[in-house]
Amino acid sequence: MIAFNNNIFHLTGKDFSYQMMIDEKGVLLHSYYGKRIEEEVSPITEQKDRGFSPNALFFDKRTYSYDSLPLELSTLGMGDFRKPAIAVENEDNSITLNLRYHSHEIFNEAKKSELLPGLYGGGGETLVITLKDDAYCIEVKIYYVLFPSYNAFSRYLEIKNLAEGDKTFHSLSSTSLDLSFGKYDLISFTGRHCFERNFNRSKMDALTLNASSSRGTSSHQINPAFIIAERETTEDTGIAFSLHLVYSGSFNFNISKDQYSSYRVILGMGDENMPYILKKGEMITTPQVIHTFSDKGLNNLSNTISDLFKEHLINKNTLSCKAPVLINNWEATYFDFDGTKLINIARKAKKLGVDLFVLDDGWFGKRNDDKSSLGDWFANEEKLGMSLSSLSDRIHKMGMKFGLWIEPEMISRDSKLYREHPDWLMRTPKQEPVKSRDQYILDITNDEAFSYIKNAICNLLDNVKIDYIKWDMNRSLSDIYSPVNRTKRGNTAHNFVLRLYHLLNIVKTNYSNILLEGCSGGGGRFDAGMLYYTPQIWLSDNTDALNRAEIQYNSSYVYPFSAFGAHVSAVPNHQTYRTIPIETRSAIAFLGTYGLELDPEKISDEDGNFLKTEIKRFKSYSNKLKNSHLYRIEKSQYVTCFLTVEKNRKSALLTAILKEREGNPLPIYVKLKGLDPNYTYSVFDKLYKGSTLMNYGLSLPFENKEYPSISYIMKAVKS
Ligand code: DGJ
After folding, report:
1. How remote is the C-alpha of 439 from its chain's centroid?
2. Which tens digits make up the pLDDT trace of 43-53?
3. Most buried of 251, 448, 525, 654 (most Cβ within 10 A)?
């Protein structure tokens, strides 16, 4: 519910309240974010005459300073010396932005910009507060989209330049949250290619902390999803809230502690990709930040994120709802294939029960390695020995669906496209562009290059029967400059993301039956923005089950596991050279979309038979998995253990992997979570009450072999 009383806005979700207040001069202060309260409150901040904290707007009142008050949208020039969410240089080169309340509206729907991804769907409400700086002619609307039955809301800005000249933005953040008191931990997810989303929890007490991506993508290195937890918060108790930037470009996350030990948290588009010029009469909408809240620990927070994203963010595609099991030829063949080899892989996979064959990189132009042809989106018929259509038709005749890999935002110098349009490559005029994986960025901010790539994709989708697209992106954006448009770095970087979204939107809307899987060298663009278009994202280029268990466990803090592209790959593993039993590889892929990334012609009959049974088991349980909550049970030196529990608690999937074994090992006991205490579950041929499993616990019966695992569906036999 959204209410407005006595100059105080009060957003009430399932268990939380968020409040802000218009002060005497019309400045919007932040009053409260936390567990639900019924009363309207003003900021708790003690007002005192504080040295060197000025009194902008209140010249007669030395106790009132925006330098110490919690602000709802921090700017420069108001006597607040903390980091601003919005930093703008006006047409006369001054940097002041003095925003005052002008009006507000409340809508009974979730409002979303057409250009950007964000929360959608029934049951939402939106509060729009309009602020204005009349002297410098800027209008800022703050949007709060609330889904009152969830512990969640999102926030974004619409900024209009009503002045006669251009405005230059040096910071354009969507959210700034001032926390007046409390002891917090910050949880962030850092990593690298092939080892994304390492879990970091540290005391939030540094003076400033900056966690940003300037790569033009959300990046492998730091994910734009963060959790702030009260210091004593555990997986199952305590207060925590998350912030997700719904954006796939560079971003900026900043926490600063002020002189009075309050914290300011800022999240939005990347400062390092600024400045952004807003011309006279123009408007920019900033990306949404989704905020979720939990007063029952981190598992509860993750399940709120998961429920909200599945219902109100992720594109619901008919094929994704069926959870097709796919086989992807990448690790089976890399670039070394022809049509016959692919058909043989598909034929064998079909016998295992696979639904969808995905042809990865190397099918187009004259691409036989990663050095050429990006941009030449026409099939290499000589290599395939047939047209793409006939390959697709032959796969369909086997009763399988056909998927294709593309990397639309890229161009190779060795390509027909580059030879014809060298000025479509993103680069600065006077320096050689930076090369990465032998490829360059296609300047999709250029209208002509954009319509070329749009037509190339539509042409493929119109002429070949394609059911699935893997949308890849294999380098970071350097040289962020359009040789044709010559716009400022911020405009180019943001327009690049908008054009990407526009392309994805065309596919999502005009080819709505096609299932999109996002990818950026694995999980380099695993973010809430991409999830809006691509219901699943390839989680990592690392397919080693042991590493994957870690990446999946950590990613589950902030993303729904049903969106994790997860495959069973060959052994020894291509990234870690480790040999992990097929049962364990399969158990981990089960906690994701389940697919194969191997040559089924090269596996033993025994492994083939096992996979056949597993694929059948996955298909028969996948609907229940989609409708389950995930509980992180344990991650230690020895074991990683997850439990997914159907929302009606009638079944649960217990997954555990033994990572390290010693002689005369310690026993491994776990306490399960999320079950119905009164139901009786069958576990390893014995019956236990939910309350017993959650309190007394369970000893995990691992087999006597290397890297054993458990993947066991527990059913409620009595309620
Ligand atoms: C990176 C992806 O993550 C891989 O799965 C594969 O599609 C390659 N790109 C192909 O170039």
Report:
1. 25
2. 998 889 999 99
3. 251
Q: Give me the active site residues, please.
A: 472, 541
Q: Is 137 exposed, middle or buried (0-12, 13-18, 19+ CB in 10 A)?
A: middle
**Beta-ladder partners of 244:** 225, 290
Q: How many residues does the chain have?
A: 719
- The distance from CA 682 to its chain's CA centroid, rounded to whole angstroms, is 36
Residue 68: closest CA among 177, 169, 180: 180
For residue 582, how many other CB atoms are within 10 A of its CB?
A: 20
Residue of 351, 389, 356, 310 lying closest to 513 (CA atoms):
356
φ and ψ at 252, to 5 degrees?
-135, 125
pLDDT at 322: 81
Report the distance separating Cα 456 and Cα 687, nearest Å: 58
Mean per-residue pLDDT, 626-635: 97
The token pair that represents 402 in the structure block: 């056909």
Q: How confident is the model at residue 181 (pLDDT cuts 50, 70, 90)?
A: confident
Mutate which of 217, 220, 405 for ligand 1? The one with the most ligand atoms within 8 Å of its CB, which is 405
The answer to which of 55-64, 146-155, 237-246, 690-699 has the lowest mean pLDDT is 55-64
- Interval 532-591: pLDDT, tens: 999 999 999 999 999 999 999 999 999 999 999 999 999 999 999 999 999 999 999 999
**Distance, CA of 390 to CA of 464 (rounded, Å):** 9
Which residues are near ligand 1 (CB < 6 Å)? 330, 360-361, 405, 472, 474, 519, 521-522, 538, 541
Burial 118-136 (b: 16+ CB within 10 A, else e): bbbeeebbbbbbbbbbeeb
Distances in Å between the alpha carbon of 394 and those of 58, 361, 389?
76, 19, 8
At residue 59, the pLDDT reads: 87
pLDDT averaged over the chain?
A: 97
Q: How many CB atoms lie within 10 A of CB 696?
A: 12
Task: Report the relative pairing of strands 356-359 and 326-328 from DSSP bridges.
Answer: parallel
The mean pLDDT value for 488-500 works out to 97
Relative to the CA of 519, which ligand 1 atom is closest? 3
Distance from the CA of 522 to the center of ligand 1, in angstroms? 7
